[in-house]
Amino acid sequence: MRARTAQAIIYVLDVLAVPAVAYCIYDSVRVQRAIAAAAPEIGFDSGIYYLLLASVMWVLTAIQIVGLKRGAAFRPHRAGMVLVIWFVTCLSLANVLPYLITRTLEAAGYQPCRDTREVSRVSRGVGRVYRLNGCEDHSVAPIGSVRRSQGSPPLNDHAPG
């Protein structure tokens, strides 16, 4: 691959990382505003915060630019350390932010309910609906329970499958 093509690909990935990180910020602000407005239902997906890992591309680009400008004075072993620290920080944030937001929702009186409109998960995390007045609606079920039809035997949510 030519150097110019590789550089163009890196810049495209940098640009694609912007909306991924912006969406994480937007979702956090959206949930906080919904709590402040006492919305009756707030959707929350804890898996989207792994999109923060896309920002690792920014660090790679910064390391490349610094390496090109400094030439022989560039210390690549420090660049690797910076990259690892940024990666671990993003991974930590992807786990801690959903925990903090979940605690904030529960402290505000919201109850976690399964979003039964969500058929399957292809990403890490849990898609839930947080309801202010519990899970009375038939489109959502409380966590730990499974809706069943009349006459069906009870189902165990935690059975090995």
Automatic annotation (TrEMBL):
<feature type="transmembrane region" description="Helical">
    <location>
        <begin position="6"/>
        <end position="26"/>
    </location>
</feature>
<feature type="transmembrane region" description="Helical">
    <location>
        <begin position="47"/>
        <end position="67"/>
    </location>
</feature>
<protein>
    <submittedName>
        <fullName>Uncharacterized protein</fullName>
    </submittedName>
</protein>
<keyword id="KW-1133">Transmembrane helix</keyword>
<keyword id="KW-0812">Transmembrane</keyword>
<feature type="transmembrane region" description="Helical">
    <location>
        <begin position="79"/>
        <end position="101"/>
    </location>
</feature>
<keyword id="KW-0472">Membrane</keyword>
